[in-house]
Amino acid sequence: MKKLVLLRHGESTWNKENRFTGWTDVDLTEKGTEEAIKAGNLLKEKGFVFEKAYTSYLKRAIKTLNIVLDRMDLDWIAVEKTWRLNEKHYGALQGLNKGETAEKYGEEQVKIWRRSYDIAPPALREDDPRNPRLDIRYMGIQGEHLPLTEALKDTVERSLPYWKEVIAPSLQHFGQILVVAHGNSLRGIIKYLKNISDEEIVTLNLPTAVPYVFEFDDELNLQQDYFLGDPEEIRKMMEAVANQGKKK
Ligand SMILES: O=C(O)[C@@H](CO)OP(=O)(O)O
């Protein structure tokens, strides 16, 4: 049996302030660090051993991964970072408070921007200093791939080739793989793995730093998936994420 663990990063400073984050490179809060420690301890306790892990180019995910590996005594393993696992790009919404945005544009519109499959938030202007083309970490990437905003569909279009060409073969090879990424980049991968419809994916809200385990047979057919942790606590965390888009 092959096991994939998907982990959203721990709470970030902008999660705490309830701001749209996307590709903004914000740090973990103290609570986020504690959540990562808890996730690492839990994975170790459940007997997981990874030889390879994947994460994004954003420090909230990278730091979460490092903390988890440290708790598991797996600091030594190979880690591959890729922009393809970055969070969905939130365009011109990045930095805005989600509750205030709901006051201004309505909760329904905010839900569409946050969770719809194919409707993207308003784009950053090409000359915006936050344009990823101006960021040294994305210099090696062809400009046409770099977004100024993304719908989940666009996030899936850039993450799925990485899943198929890199992570899935690695899972075949190593048997256990850890991927630490973001609420929406992981929703995209989960949509694909579980064959969730464009309509249904709107209802999925991932809690921070709760390990989500996917078990596959040797041909990588999905057998079952489950979160590690207390189901009631996880349900409440998911509900809290959904409620971040409500008016203040
Ligand atoms: O702001 C973001 O980048 C994401 C993840 O934190 O938020 P949301 O849950 O609104 O998609």
Automatic annotation (TrEMBL):
SUPFAM superfamilies: Phosphoglycerate mutase-like (SSF53254). The active site is at H9, E87. It catalyses: (2R)-2-phosphoglycerate = (2R)-3-phosphoglycerate. Substrate binds at residues 8-15, 21-22, 60, 87-90, 98, 114-115, 183-184. Gene3D superfamilies: Phosphoglycerate mutase-like. InterPro entries: His_Pase_superF_clade-1 (IPR013078), His_PPase_superfam (IPR029033), PG/BPGM_mutase_AS (IPR001345), Phosphogly_mut1 (IPR005952). Pfam families: His_Phos_1. Keywords: Gluconeogenesis, Glycolysis, Isomerase. The keyword Nucleotidyltransferase does not apply. GO terms for molecular function: phosphoglycerate mutase activity. Pathway: Carbohydrate degradation; glycolysis; pyruvate from D-glyceraldehyde 3-phosphate: step 3/5. Transmembrane segments: none annotated. The record marks H182 as: Transition state stabilizer. Its EC number is 5.4.2.11. GO terms for biological process: gluconeogenesis; glycolytic process. It is an enzyme of class 5 (isomerase). Belongs to the phosphoglycerate mutase family. BPG-dependent PGAM subfamily. Catalyzes the interconversion of 2-phosphoglycerate and 3-phosphoglycerate. This is 2,3-bisphosphoglycerate-dependent phosphoglycerate mutase.
